[in-house]
Amino acid sequence: MQDEVERLRVLIGALELALGHLFAASPGGEEARGRFAADLRDLLAATNERQPGSPAAETYEALLRRLGAAGPAETLGAVPTPERGAPPSGPGV
Fold first, then answer.
1. Which of 1, 21, 46, 62 has the smallest set of CB atoms within 10 Å of its CB?
2. What 3 state SS string does the chain have?
Protein backbone atom coordinates (compact mmCIF):
# COMPACT_ATOMS: atom_id res chain seq x y z
CA MET A 1 0.00 0.00 0.00
CA GLN A 2 2.76 2.46 0.89
CA ASP A 3 4.46 1.82 -2.47
CA GLU A 4 1.21 2.61 -4.29
CA VAL A 5 0.79 5.85 -2.34
CA GLU A 6 4.36 6.87 -3.13
CA ARG A 7 3.87 6.13 -6.84
CA LEU A 8 0.68 8.18 -6.83
CA ARG A 9 2.52 11.09 -5.18
CA VAL A 10 5.21 10.99 -7.86
CA LEU A 11 2.65 10.84 -10.67
CA ILE A 12 0.62 13.73 -9.25
CA GLY A 13 3.80 15.80 -8.84
CA ALA A 14 4.72 15.11 -12.46
CA LEU A 15 1.22 16.06 -13.61
CA GLU A 16 1.36 19.34 -11.69
CA LEU A 17 4.75 20.13 -13.18
CA ALA A 18 3.54 19.32 -16.70
CA LEU A 19 0.43 21.49 -16.28
CA GLY A 20 2.56 24.38 -15.07
CA HIS A 21 4.83 24.09 -18.10
CA LEU A 22 1.86 23.90 -20.46
CA PHE A 23 0.28 27.01 -18.97
CA ALA A 24 3.59 28.89 -19.11
CA ALA A 25 4.50 27.86 -22.67
CA SER A 26 1.11 28.07 -24.37
CA PRO A 27 -0.28 31.17 -26.02
CA GLY A 28 -3.16 32.22 -23.80
CA GLY A 29 -1.73 30.14 -20.97
CA GLU A 30 -2.74 32.64 -18.29
CA GLU A 31 -6.33 32.55 -19.52
CA ALA A 32 -6.25 28.74 -19.50
CA ARG A 33 -4.82 28.79 -15.97
CA GLY A 34 -7.66 31.06 -14.89
CA ARG A 35 -10.27 28.80 -16.45
CA PHE A 36 -8.71 25.74 -14.84
CA ALA A 37 -8.71 27.50 -11.47
CA ALA A 38 -12.38 28.44 -11.94
CA ASP A 39 -13.20 24.81 -12.72
CA LEU A 40 -11.31 23.70 -9.61
CA ARG A 41 -13.24 26.22 -7.50
CA ASP A 42 -16.52 24.83 -8.88
CA LEU A 43 -15.40 21.26 -8.11
CA LEU A 44 -14.34 22.34 -4.63
CA ALA A 45 -17.68 24.00 -3.93
CA ALA A 46 -19.64 20.98 -5.18
CA THR A 47 -17.45 18.58 -3.23
CA ASN A 48 -17.73 20.63 -0.03
CA GLU A 49 -21.52 20.52 -0.35
CA ARG A 50 -21.48 16.72 -0.36
CA GLN A 51 -18.28 15.76 1.47
CA PRO A 52 -16.73 18.66 3.39
CA GLY A 53 -13.13 18.04 4.39
CA SER A 54 -12.81 15.02 2.09
CA PRO A 55 -9.49 14.07 0.46
CA ALA A 56 -10.91 15.27 -2.88
CA ALA A 57 -11.67 18.72 -1.42
CA GLU A 58 -8.19 18.90 0.09
CA THR A 59 -6.68 17.99 -3.28
CA TYR A 60 -8.63 20.74 -5.08
CA GLU A 61 -7.54 23.23 -2.40
CA ALA A 62 -3.91 22.20 -2.77
CA LEU A 63 -4.06 22.53 -6.55
CA LEU A 64 -5.55 26.02 -6.25
CA ARG A 65 -2.72 27.03 -3.92
CA ARG A 66 -0.07 25.55 -6.24
CA LEU A 67 -1.59 27.38 -9.20
CA GLY A 68 -1.33 30.59 -7.22
CA ALA A 69 -5.10 30.95 -7.47
CA ALA A 70 -5.56 31.35 -3.72
CA GLY A 71 -4.35 34.58 -2.21
CA PRO A 72 -2.34 34.54 1.01
CA ALA A 73 -5.30 35.88 3.00
CA GLU A 74 -7.76 33.46 1.43
CA THR A 75 -8.59 30.46 3.55
CA LEU A 76 -9.81 27.50 1.56
CA GLY A 77 -9.78 25.02 4.40
CA ALA A 78 -7.27 22.53 5.72
CA VAL A 79 -3.77 22.77 4.36
CA PRO A 80 -2.93 19.36 2.92
CA THR A 81 0.52 18.03 3.60
CA PRO A 82 2.26 14.93 2.25
CA GLU A 83 1.39 13.24 5.53
CA ARG A 84 -2.31 14.06 4.99
CA GLY A 85 -2.40 12.85 1.41
CA ALA A 86 -1.14 15.78 -0.64
CA PRO A 87 1.71 14.91 -2.95
CA PRO A 88 5.01 16.71 -2.55
CA SER A 89 5.77 19.12 -5.35
CA GLY A 90 8.64 21.19 -6.56
CA PRO A 91 11.90 20.76 -8.39
CA GLY A 92 13.25 18.14 -6.00
CA VAL A 93 10.37 15.73 -6.61
1. 1
2. CHHHHHHHHHHHHHHHHHHHHHHHHCCCHHHHHHHHHHHHHHHHHHHHHHCCCCHHHHHHHHHHHHCCCCCCCCCCCCCCCHHHCCCCCCCCC
Kindly report the backbone phi and psi dihedral angles of residue 91, in degrees, each rounded to the nearest multiple of 5, phi listed first: -65, -25
Dihedral sign of CA atoms 32, 5, 57, 67 in order: negative
Per-residue pLDDT of the chain (93 residues; tens, 9 = 90+): 677 777 877 877 788 788 888 888 888 888 888 898 899 899 999 999 998 888 888 888 888 887 777 655 444 444 455 555 555 555 554
**Distance separating alpha carbons of residues 65 and 59, to the nearest angstrom:** 10
If we measure between CA atoms, which residue out of 44, 34, 43, 92 comes closest to residue 67?
34
